[in-house]
Write a structure and sequence with these properties.
The strands form 2 sheets. This protein has a 27-stranded parallel sheet that branches. Strands 11-13-12 form a 3-stranded antiparallel sheet. It is 12% helix and 43% strand. Among the domains are: 51 residues, no CATH class; 254 residues, Single-stranded right-handed beta-helix, Pectin lyase-like (Pectate Lyase C-like, 3 Solenoid). The termini are far apart. The protein is mostly beta strands. The radius of gyration is 24 Å and the shape is globular. The longest helix is centred in the first third of the chain and has 18 residues.
Length: 499
């Protein structure tokens, strides 16, 4: 009898635990495929404040030692919450610990020092003369770690990033030149230059960490980079002006990104908002993004290393808004580990270069299974509303799969992707699909997709089994404006080859 009562109690506790998961109630009902659910991240109930360790929030006093002392204290206590109160707290990189919450008050800003020397790792110099740099906030092999609160992490990326002259106004270019720096030719354009924050004027007190601007540019750190960890929560914080990518969680089990705001100038080089890679079980919801590169970008590693890290799987991306970005929702370019059960719904992309951007190349590609994008509104898309490309990087779109060497054995297999109930108002191109000879893009469904105000229709190359049902894509009567080497393509039941 006691055993039966014990088992019943365990069952009740299990039911209550499921019922108390706040994410299940709002985000997981009625999904098009079964997705493993995230679990809440639990932090020990112990709290200290940064000022307890001598920090001064005047934006000028270096608080690095205060952060280090606070983290050392919390580690001895078994973890807890570090409150960063209102103020501006200047610091070098912050190394996270397990069972820890970095909590920023509403008007708190952690301002990362522009002194590049603070970020250089002690590792050996690489072959090209560069060294690796720690991210502004970083950690590896952790469990139960969170960054929460409505405050701000500011990476002061202007002291790290190169700037292409053609992307900024004359006034902005003049402001950059007034900082000093190094101006070099833009290799992709004879008429434009690139500014590097190298040899800045002495008053900025920003030393170089490499022998030339090209090598130093390769050393740019991310803003937040957490790797090989379990149970990670990023909630409500504002991430601004990263030297490179803003949020880079990699090889994480159980990741929650909720209500995060990410901002950097549209001209910020490699200014990706978030690039989760080889994640198993994740939720990205209620985020607001305007950045210099891709918005919400799925990564899966390059080649065999990506395969060994496992697929990017069981993702739910919901209620997110992306404004300026190269792509609203993106896969690639590297995804050799594969993409499995990725659901994107109830999102808005406005003013992005491309709406849904799937990009890869030989040597970087992988496989797809159960990718669903639905209930999405797009507006004022600068290029294509939908782009699927297998020729993004190393090889051109016309390359033959049989012509590649062993180095490029990982070919993109874009397939099993559904776009449903999506409206785009204004775009240069409606749909662009670029497969490879011998490796076509295949089994893609566009259902109840409306694209109006576009200047170009559908372009396809090396594509098979592409089906448009209940779609309204202008210009009429047929939206196929350019196609070649396609097979089994249907637009509302019609064969474009017959037109």
């Amino acid at each position: 009898m006691k055993r039966s009562l014990f088992i019943s109690a365990l069952a009740l506790m299990s039911v209550l635990a499921v019922a108390q998961n706040p994410y299940d109630k709002y985000y997981t009902p009625d999904l098009p495929c079964a997705v493993e659910h995230v679990q809440p991240v639990v932090i020990p109930d112990y709290t200290v404040t940064l000022t307890d360790f001598g920090a001064v929030g005047d934006g000028m006093t270096d608080c690095s030692e205060a952060f280090n002392a606070a983290l050392k204290h919390l580690k001895k206590q078994g973890g807890g919450h570090l409150i960063v109160p209102d103020g501006t707290w200047l610091t070098g990189p912050i190394k996270l610990i397990s069972n820890f919450d970095l909590h920023l008050a509403d008007h708190a800003t952690i301002l990362f020092s522009p002194n590049k020397e603070l970020y250089v790792q002690a590792s050996d110099t690489l072959r090209d003369g560069s060294k690796k740099c720690h991210a502004c906030v970083y950690g590896s092999k952790l469990e139960n770690v969170a960054i929460t609160g409505y405050g701000t992490l500011d990476g002061q990326g202007i002291y790290w990033r190169p700037v292409k002259q053609k992307k900024v106004s004359e006034e902005q270019w003049a402001e950059l030149l007034a900082m000093g720096g190094k101006v070099m030719a833009d290799g992709n354009s004879k008429n434009w230059k690139i500014w590097y924050p190298f040899n800045l004027k002495p008053e900025y007190n920003v030393p170089n960490i490499a022998s030339d601007p090209i090598i130093q540019e390769k050393m740019r750190p991310h803003l937040v980079n957490i790797t090989d960890s379990k149970n990670v929560l990023i909630e409500h914080v504002h991430l601004l002006n990263s030297p490179k990518f803003h949020l880079v969680p990699t090889r994480i089990q159980n990741l929650i990104i909720d209500g995060v705001n990410i901002r950097c100038p549209h001209w910020a080089q490699n200014g990706d908002a978030m690039d989760p890679g080889n994640i198993q079980v994740a939720l990205i919801v209620n985020c607001n993004i305007s950045c210099g590169d891709d918005g919400i970008c799925m990564k899966g590693g390059v080649g065999q290393k990506g395969v060994d890290a496992g697929p990017q799987r069981d993702f739910l991306i919901c209620n997110d808004t992306v404004y300026r970005a190269h792509g609203g929702f993106v896969i690639g370019s590297e995804f050799s580990g594969g993409m499995q059960r990725i659901v994107v719904k109830d999102c808005r992309f406005e003013g992005t270069d491309i709406g849904c951007r799937f990009k890869s190349a030989p040597g970087r590609g992988g496989w797809c299974e159960d990718i669903y994008c639905y209930n999405i509104i797009m507006k004022d898309i600068l290029e294509s509303a939908f782009l699927i490309s297998s020729g993004y990087a190393d090889k051109g779109a016309g390359v033959s799969a049989t012509d590649s060497d062993n180095k490029n054995a990982f070919f993109p297999d874009w397939s099993n992707i559904t776009f449903r109930n999506i409206t785009c108002i204004g775009s240069k191109q409606a749909v662009e699909i670029q497969g490879l000879k011998g490796k076509p893009v295949h089994h893609i469904l566009f259902d109840q997709v409306t694209i109006i105000g576009n200047r170009g229709g559908i372009k396809m190359e090396w594509a098979e089994d592409i089906n448009f049902t209940n779609c309204n894509i202008n210009p009429k009567p047929m939206p196929i404006t350019d196609y070649k080497k396609i097979k089994n393509v249907r637009y509302n039941g019609k064969d474009p080859d017959a037109e």
